[in-house]
Amino acid sequence: MTLSNSFDIAAQGIEASSLRIQAHSANVANVGTPYYVRKIPVISESNAVSFHGVLADMRSGIFHTGLSMNNSGVVFEGNVGDPTPGKRIYEPGHPQADKDGYVTMSNVNILTDIADATVAAKVYEANLSVFGIVKSMANKAIEIGRGQ
């Protein structure tokens, strides 16, 4: 793995965490909005090393070079709606009430979204730290290359 790959992986983690925080923030902001459906961010591993790929490399004699982790990292796939139904409240005078006088409230659980946003913020900070460490390693490599 090169230093460039390390920068890319940390940057992907920072971006994915930022988008997670945005989704959870939108959920918290809409906790009292009728008919709002909670957004669940989907993060997946990008270009993971597969067992099948490792076996294929072993069969073709490439295994002696070691495992390649090029372009690994995470990717933000988007948001999916939480299928949990929102609470129905009887409010016949509400402008968004259905024909029976009920309003379906948001299905956001504020404690869940605050906890998820906190985890995403910690992951963001961890990736920022990785970025700084890799930057420090790159600077040391440059100093060594200069003969200092």
Q: Could you give a quick summary of the protein structure above?
A:
The chain is of the alpha+beta class and 148 residues long.
Q: Overview of this structure, please?
A:
It is a single chain. 49% of the residues lie in helices and 14% in strands. The protein is of the alpha+beta class and 148 residues long. The chain has one domain (3-30, 39-81, 108-146). The two termini are 25 Å apart.
Radius of gyration: 23 Å
Strand residue content: 5-15%
In round numbers, the mean pLDDT is 85
Strand order of the largest sheet: 1-2
Secondary structure class reads: alpha+beta
Secondary-structure element series: HEHEEEH
Q: Count up the helices.
A: 3
The largest sheet is:
2 strands, antiparallel
Shape: elongated
Q: How many extended strands?
A: 4
Number of domains: 1
* N-C termini distance: 25 Å
Structure keywords:
148 residues; alpha+beta; two-stranded antiparallel ribbon; 49% helix
Helix-strand layout with pairing:
Elements: H1 3-29, E1 39-45, H2 51-59, E2 74-81, E3 88-90, E4 102-104, H3 110-146
Antiparallel strand pairs: 1-2, 3-4
